[in-house]
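From the pipeline queue, job 12 of 40. The input is one protein chain; the requested action is below.

Action: predict structure.
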Amino acid sequence: MPTVDQHRQKLLALLKELFQINQPDLDFGFYRIMHAKADEVSRFLDEDLLQIIADSFGETSSAKQTDLKKAYLDEIETARQYGVENPEASPKVKEAKARWESAMDTAEGEIYDHLYRFFERYYDNGDFLSKRYYARESGSKAAPYAVPYDGSEVYLHWANKDQYYIKTSEYFTDFTFDLSKAKDVEGKIESISVHQADSPMRVHFRIVDATEGEHGNIKAANGQKRYFILHATDPVSLENEELIIRFEYRPDPLKSGQDAVWQRKLMDEAVDKILIHLDGLKGAAEFDRLLRTPVPTDKQKDRTLLAKYLARYMARNTMDYFIHKDLGGFLQRELDFYIKNEIMHLDNIENNDAPRVEQYLSKIKVLRKIARKIIAFLAQLEEFQKKLWLKKKFVTETNYCITLDRVTEELYPEIAANEAQYDEWVRLFAIDEIKGDLLSPAYSKPLSADFLKNYKYLTVDTKFFNEDFKTRLIASVSDFNEQCNGLLLHSENFQALGVLQKRYKGEINSVYIDPPYNTDASPILYGRILKK
């Protein structure tokens, strides 16, 4: 049976995952912020939370524990009355003390177990999902989920309803971790021997070559599933006392079997090859020793520290994630539901005496106090991340494509002299093949203003011109916004819709976007907007 300390350590390990303390030293995005706050989070888990737990258990004592403590003190007094020199050594005193301590450990262990079950239930790969379900009935194979219903006549619910969806797709940034902090990262692995030097021992996983495939909203073509494959010619090296491990991300012509199984096979092969290279790499002995450290799991008894980080790297590069809109409120509501549903059973209250009911209430009081402190800290971090996500983004660049018939002829000489512009016309429209005749001029380099006057449906792209020209061009077109009959945005979806919302509010009847990938959507105009 697990001890109270094991229950506590199990809970702390989960909380470190929730707070992303277990993440290696990732050097991009939100992880930079998390690492900047890592000391504060670690202090909360290692010091503040433990003190909160100790204070909570000190304030609350069940009736059963009170009775057992009184029995223990009574046995000590009895032993003294009989002249026992060392009452603590008396067998009856020892038995009474053991019963009292066992009751305390059981109560504390139950609290830790409930805290673990509650947070683990709603946490999934970095996100909190609405997985409210009733206590599993006897003999049932699966717990029935409970959907929070608001009373609407028609109600649509999904697991991520209260979250902002952040589509990461695939990104190829460096994945970095520090072996000198390996013990802190792994936490529960007590057998690991950590490098004790002052200087860090950084390990970098890098993509040095990647073929185009799935990106943004574009799915990879059939048979073009890409995999992380160890770079063949230069897989491992030491640079400035830091270990660099290089990968390619491409289809594998040798692939057979399921995608996940094949990637797992490639990862296992990469682990073996990396360790072989390290064994013969000058100056890499300490890296070699630490990366071979056993970090077993229930399913992977022979997993090494290198295999652990490789699995995390390959998973994080293809994972979507979410930001909760109101994590604090959500977890508070779910905590109350959890307590009512799985701790405080009405039948037990009705059929038990006052001391037993007091024990239930005591347990709930401690559980709520500890859980609410954890929720408040989690909500603070999630709220900060939400503010970053909702912060208005800058439009980095705006350009226009305008046919020459809408452009004042006063600007034609500047357009004709722009080499980049007419090079694009040659590439797109083959204007260099125009020979000319008695009525129209031939192609020349540089172009003439008369040439532009004869081909007024050539499109001017303002990306080839400076801001001064762009301003004069826009100013020369009357009712400029009305003249624009198309809009193309290169942006993350959520931010793009935010930009469009005010400009087109009340003007759009329907939008067709993101056609299904399992059907022939090519005949459909992608992203078509029907205006009033």
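Job complete. The radius of gyration is 33 Å.
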